[in-house]
Write a structure and sequence with these properties.
By secondary structure, this protein is an alpha+beta fold. The protein has 3 helices and 21 strands.
Length: about 300
């Protein structure tokens, strides 16, 4: 009986030793979950801004029962802004290429950038840290693109003074400098051209990172190309829509409008002459062209 009782006691003691660490872990998890801390961080970075505009980067977070220690902002992992709750002064900024901070409009939840340039393009990260006892730290990020609207109209080159029926027309359209690169489209008699008549060339990149695109057009002068005694060639430049939604793109184009270069070839009994004109055309006119027949 004594041996059996001792054996039972040893088993009971061993079981308690085994269960105690598990009990401690479960208790610790329960206590940690019961303490409120930093959570729900959300970063708002504008998808794009036009060169020269301001950009406001926002960092939303929920401290719950914690106290704020610091908010830090990074561009491509390089810190450029810091807000420390208990420091004097609270705000410290660091020199980073492409960053100009408006300190009066910046605080613990946002940082305002002035007059963005192409060097402002990049990935931005906000890091929020809490005070003791949690010392929690969380972060979020977003990317900012900067758009450089073209100042110049596209340019048509390769035209000759005279053409005859059967001659080959070789034209080239070059866009104005922009970022991102402009898209070029040829129209003949207000009908968009697609297919083997077009020739694409590599982008021209300037030392400042601006882009120019070129699009060639080759075809033979035939009688059926003439409408009321003339052939109207038109090259339209528009920014690539890949960086923003259609609604946002429209807001940019309404301010700048699409740019167009036109070439008019008039026919006579003996020869065909050539004249040029360049002007701006509203967005509503350009968009109506898209529904017309395409020349292959």
């Amino acid at each position: 009986m004594v041996a059996k009782s001792s054996h039972s006691r040893y088993l009971k003691d061993g079981l308690m030793l085994f269960l105690f660490p598990l009990h401690f872990i479960l208790t610790s998890v329960f206590i940690a979950q019961g303490v409120g801390g930093l959570k729900d961080i959300r970063v708002e970075v504008p998808q794009y801004r036009v060169r020269g505009e301001d950009a406001v980067l926002k960092c939303h977070y929920d401290l719950e029962n914690d106290s704020l220690y610091a908010v830090k902002w990074y561009k491509e992992n390089e810190e450029f802004y810091r807000f420390v709750q208990r420091a004097h002064p609270q705000i410290t900024s660091y020199r980073v290429e492409g960053i100009k901070i408006d300190l009066e409009q910046s605080n613990s939840t946002q940082v305002s950038l002035r007059q963005v340039t192409l060097k402002t393009i990049g990935k931005y990260r906000c890091e929020v840290s809490a005070e003791a006892p949690s010392f929690e730290s969380k972060q979020g990020e977003g990317r900012l693109e900067v758009i450089f609207l073209p100042r110049d109209k596209p340019h048509i080159s390769g035209k000759r003074q005279y053409y005859q029926i059967g001659d080959e027309i070789n034209l080239n359209c070059t866009s104005g400098k922009s970022y991102p690169a402009s898209e070029l489209h040829w129209y003949i008699n207000d009908q968009k051209v697609k297919g083997p008549s077009l020739r694409s060339y590599p982008e021209i990149i300037s030392s400042h990172g601006l882009r120019q695109t070129q699009l060639g057009l080759t075809l033979t002068v035939t009688n059926d190309l003439f409408r009321d005694g003339s052939i109207k060639f038109k090259c339209i430049a528009t920014l690539s829509p890949s960086l923003w939604q259609a609604k946002q793109e429209g807001q940019i184009i309404q301010r700048n409008q699409l740019k167009e270069a036109s070439l008019l070839i008039r026919g006579t009994a003996n020869k065909v002459t050539c004249s040029t004109s360049i002007w701006l055309i509203p967005i509503t006119v350009i968009m109506s062209l898209g529904s017309r027949r395409i020349i292959s």
